[in-house]
């Protein structure tokens, strides 16, 4: 009897995983709880329903990391991208789709495939055996979320994002900022210089507080004001509690000496902490926020040293179930404690429609390869797919892990390419050229054949 791949969740990741595995010759069952069990965001029982924006963001595969991810998915005959192209709407350089026909078309393609069936039922427990991909997304049902939490431990599964902004390291002005841990703590030089510091004088601090208080904010959704947030209040809420609150919290200036002005004690200090192993990304410590995105960029660029900051991700707090994947998943997207189960999509700690579908594409191919006994080589880290997988399976700092969009900060640095703003166009083109070559090479080595004998 042929082995079956079971996929829990029929969103973008689950849909792409099912397509990839079925195209490789594996029988697939999609377990989707909708429409029997609804969510506050979904409106239909269609697979691949888009519940927020209708945009897949930039389609520029030479200057944009998400556009590169589009290119890689198209090269791998991805269903999501092919369907998006058929239902494309005018959106300048972005790929936006007519969302209802898009979801209906994905559903029709999957249901017409002879190797795919669908079961409308909620999975509430961790499967004990078989081949599984869990791709339940940010709105994982309470029952399954609790089952995962029991298995992983309370620290390994989050039900909310408390996201601090992330800045590209090469956009920080180091003539104003410096590297130092408070009180020079640490046994090694790396530990003693683990934080990047941006100083403020009193006038700068007061102007920053005024801007925080005046900025446009988004409202909390129902269920987002739980006690969980007492431990990670938005910085603007802290500012509302008193103008000095931040100086006694994440912006306290103690234990630090500014080497650019050693005789002047900063009135406040904003600290950034390395966010990935490559040291190309830094997160602003304690700066989770409900400010609208445009307001965030305006306010955060008031911080000395961040006037020209480029943000890999802006801050936020919202409902989002995700794993601490660096501690739980191996390079094949398998749950280390239960290797018959893979995870895919936003639950792995990627952010965005495209990134979710991309992780589904990889998980579907990897699961099919395992079932067919034809192991795949590791996805090359220099591809967009590989950069994402590397980030969520070990490249990110586990202690500060939060969902992430694809961006060039996740890529290994290039040799012999000009840095800084002026070199950005050539640098991005070099990243995408290298990624495309790596991805095409991987695809050439990764053809699956259901009729071939197992290795």
Helical content class:
25-40%
CATH topology of the largest domain: FAD/NAD(P)-binding domain
Helix/sheet category: alpha+beta
Report the top-level CATH class of the largest domain.
Alpha Beta
Q: Which regions have little confidence, pLDDT < 50, spanning 5+ residues?
A: 223-231
Calculate the terminal CA-CA distance, rounded to whole Å.
Answer: 18 Å
Strand content: 15-25%
> What is the CA-based Rg, rounded?
23 Å
Main beta-sheet annotation:
6 strands, mixed
CATH superfamily of the largest domain: FAD/NAD(P)-binding domain
Q: In order across it, which strands form the biggest sheet?
A: 6-2-1-7-17-16
EC number: 2.1.1.74
Subcellular location: Cytoplasm
Binding site for FAD: 9-14
Domain MnmG N-terminal: 6-374
Topology:
Elements lengths: L3 E5 L3 H12 L3 E5 L23 E4 L6 H11 L3 H8 L1 E2 L4 E4 L1 H14 L3 E4 L11 E4 L7 H11 L4 E7 L2 E3 L9 E2 L9 H4 L2 E6 L1 H13 L20 H6 L27 E7 L6 E4 L8 H8 L10 E3 L2 E8 L1 H4 L5 E2 L2 E6 L9 H20 L11 H12 L28 H22 L10
Parallel strand pairs: 1-2, 1-7, 2-6, 7-17
Antiparallel strand pairs: 3-5, 4-5, 8-15, 9-13, 9-14, 10-11, 11-12, 12-13, 16-17
Textual characterization of the structure:
One of its GO terms (molecular function) is tRNA (uracil(54)-C5)-methyltransferase activity, 5,10-methylenetetrahydrofolate-dependent. InterPro entries: FAD/NAD-bd_sf, MnmG-rel, MnmG-rel_CS, MnmG_N, TrmFO. Belongs to the MnmG family. TrmFO subfamily. The protein is of the alpha+beta class. The protein folds into two domains: 4-161 and 319-445, FAD/NAD(P)-binding domain (3-Layer(bba) Sandwich); 166-314, Beta Barrel (Elongation Factor Tu (Ef-tu), domain 3). The chain has 13 helices and 17 strands. The strands form four sheets. Strands 6-2-1-7-17-16 form a six-stranded mixed sheet. The chain has a six-stranded antiparallel sheet with strand order 10-11-12-13-9-14. A three-stranded antiparallel sheet has the order 3-5-4. Helix 2 (65-75) packs parallel to helix 11 (353-372), helix 2 packs parallel to helix 13 and helix 3 packs across helix 4 (99-112). The longest helix is centred in the last third of the chain and has 22 residues, at 424-445. The radius of gyration is 23 Å and the shape is globular. Residues 223-231 have low confidence and may be disordered.
